[in-house]
Structure formats: structure tokens, C-alpha cells
Fold each of these.
Amino acid sequence: MNTREVQAALSLLGYPLVVDGAMGPKTRTIVQTFQRGAGLAADGIVGPLTVAAIQAAVAKKEAAGQPRARELVPADWMPSAQLNRVIVHWTAGAHRASGLDRSHYHILIEGDGKLVRGFPSIDKNDARGVKPGYAAHTLNCNSGSIGVSLCCMAGAIESPFKAGSAPMTREQGEALPAVLADLCRRYAIPVTPSTVLSHAEVQGTLGIKQRGKWDISRLAFDPSVMGAKACGDLIRGSALALV
């Protein structure tokens, strides 16, 4: 496969790529993401094993009646409601969910990838009107919004970047797309920059002013990905491949 064919195949699989035939940094990062998901060495090199894995994934996607990706979020965590978007955060705390963390988010992902249910039920953030006890996870943007947070980044500094005492883990990075895919399937939320986004993207994308939030604009386990949009595109691409 040449670079253009690789880009076209990965785009078909849901990764956010422009098919331009150039093996630039973004294409290489997406290749690495695919390789990690396929259990291959994430070196960004499209060798025979990666080509075979891409071709197998495309064939599986195109096959009629393909099985749905394994669901990670328990069904009873996703009650009937009208939801419009999912906003991803980090807690700026430890790798374990505290009581305070659980009071602000619907679903938390701990450092080992384990899911923890927040205290507010998702249906309390219904788009038709929030209910008492809703999850207040994003300033002026809680109605219709599901809050998912990674338990990490205690003491992190934006610039110069330091991940703090509880850096985001690869296990969290791998669990997050599956959680997002489950939520998007359940609530018929399309995977777009305005419907699946990080807290750091809210102000620029939705025009709702936030208070200097920068989660998630860096991935501690992959320092090559920098900036809210780059992180968001990577997260969305990985989630879209599982929907």
C-alpha cells in the first residue's frame, strides 16, 4: 500500500485524515494509534504486518453483519435520556477517583483503565432540562452534556509542560475511545468536533467561555501529540473507529 492508500483505508476506518499522499506527522501519529489498537509495535512505519492489519480491519468493516465492538460501559449506567454531546476532562487529581471527583462527572476512568460511576446519573443532564443533582462538569454547558473524566494530572503544569505526579496513562488513553463509542451509540450522538470534545475545546468550538481549562491538550503517554485540537482529533478518530 502506498501512503495515499493507507490514508484512504484509515479514513474509512474512521480516523480523521486528509488523503493527500504525504506521510506527515499527523498521518504517522494516526498510524501509531492504529498499531497500538491492533497490538503491533507503534513505530509509525507501515510495514507488512501493519498493511495486513489495516486490510483486515477494512474487510471486517465492510463485511455485512459485522459484530459490534465490545461494550465497556454497563447498560444500567446509561439510562434513557436526550443527550447531545460528550465532554472529556481530566480530574487534575490522583489516579483513583475521589468522592469529589465522582460528584462532578458521570463516568471516570482510573489510572489502570478501570471505570468508576459518578454519583449523578446521566439522565439528570438531559438536554430538555437539567434535574437536581446533575453533574456540573463544564461551565454553562451541562444541559445535554455527558461528563467523562480521566483520573490523572495532579500538579500538572501547562507551560512548560509537566505531567505532575499522576500522569495520564496509556491504559486510560485506550479505555477512553471505547467509553465514548458506547455513549455515542446509546444516545445517537455523532462523533464530530462539536459533539465529542475535550474541555479545552469547548470555548473555541462551542463559543462558551471557560476559565483557562487546558484538559485535554496534552497526552502524557504520547508527547508527540500537542494541542487541544490534535488531542481531540486523535480521541475522536479512535472513538469513531469503534462506533
Amino acid sequence: MSTVTASELLSAFEACLRHRRGLSENTARAYVGDIEKLATFLDPEAPADDVLRDVTLADLRAWLGHMADEGKSRTTLARRGASARAFFAWAHEDGHIDSNPAARLASARPARTLPEVLSIPDVLSMLRVAQLRADDGDAIRIRDWAMAELLYATGMRVGELCGSDLGDIDLDERLVRVTGKGDKQRVIPFGTPAAGAVTAWIERGRPQCVGPHTDAALFLGRRGHRVDQRQVSAVVHQIAALAG
């Protein structure tokens, strides 16, 4: 880690969240608070500078496991995991630490199946979790957020989402052209939240996934191939489980 103090480091991280990523003051402060809680959990007696310098993947897993044992909600665990991924990714990219201990920090495995019908609060909680997971800049998490927002905003079928191409989306007009059963096409409007998520995916996430065999598919897997219905269903179930 660089020679800056923990206080200076967290202030710089908060500034990054607010000015580079456009998060609100309250959200940015919540992220910083999560990292402060991590340092306290690992060693309440040691200076935060020393603690944050030596964090390992095992430490992060132990922290999340401890909170799960305390009965913290999946939403809280998802946010704090996202905070850790965002902080250590930023600290590594900016040269404050030599390696990123959160690079392989996985989300909790789904613990339940989706109910037949989701309430509006359930859906909004899922979308919030999806956005929080995307805050660390990981391409697949940005994609998952965009897919969740677009599914909710348009009501399109999973198969229709998988079949969508880049040319089907109009971000300026916030419209998507969908090809349904019998090759029948319809145009569906969507709102600002979905537009923001899809823009983030197209501009920041999708370029990281493009490969030599990538076609015009709107949503890609990590190896550059078009997502399929199984992948999308797994993503929705995972986000639902994390949202609790």
C-alpha cells in the first residue's frame, strides 16, 4: 500500500465513488463505512492503515461469513461484498496496494428459488442488489444489472432478451425492438434506470467480453458468446437469493 493514511485513502475512495461513478453522498458514505467496519472486524486494536494493507481473500470471506452468522440480510451482505470489491479494485488500480484480494470474492450461493410472482418491493430490492454488485466495475455484474433492469422495465421474455442485438436498442429514444414468437416484432419503451444500466453495459462492460467470434448480440457471456436462457435464469435466481 502507498504511504497515505487510511483516512486519506478512504477520503480518496469516497471522492472516486461520488465523482467518477456518480454515486450519491449517502451511498458513497455507506461504502466507506463498510470498509471501516471491515478494518475493525479484522483487528479493532491495530491502525486501519496496517489492517487494510494486509487484507487477504480469506479475511474477506471470514468477514462476510461472520455477518451471515449474525443473521445479516442478504441485501446487507451483497452491499458489503460490493463495497469490498469496489474498494480493493480501486486501491489496486490506483497503485495503493500491490494486489487485489477481492478479485475472486464470490457472491453467496442462492439459497431459495423464485416465487411464482414477485411483489414490486421484491423486484426493487433485486434491482438494487444488482446495481450494488455492478459497482465494482466487473463486466459480468454490469451485464447482470442491465439484463435485470431491462427485463423489469419491458416485461420481455427471457428468450427475447437473449435474442436481442445491439441494433435493436435505441438509448436516445429509450426503445427496444423485440422479436417474439412467430418472428413478430414489437417496440417497447423503457425508463431511465434501465437506460442507465444498459448504457453502462454497452460502454464499460460489453467491450471487456468481446472476442474473435462475437456477433451483434446485445448481451454476452465472459467469452464473448451470446447469453442463453439458462444463463439469464441463473442470474435472476442468484440476484433474488441475494436480495432475500
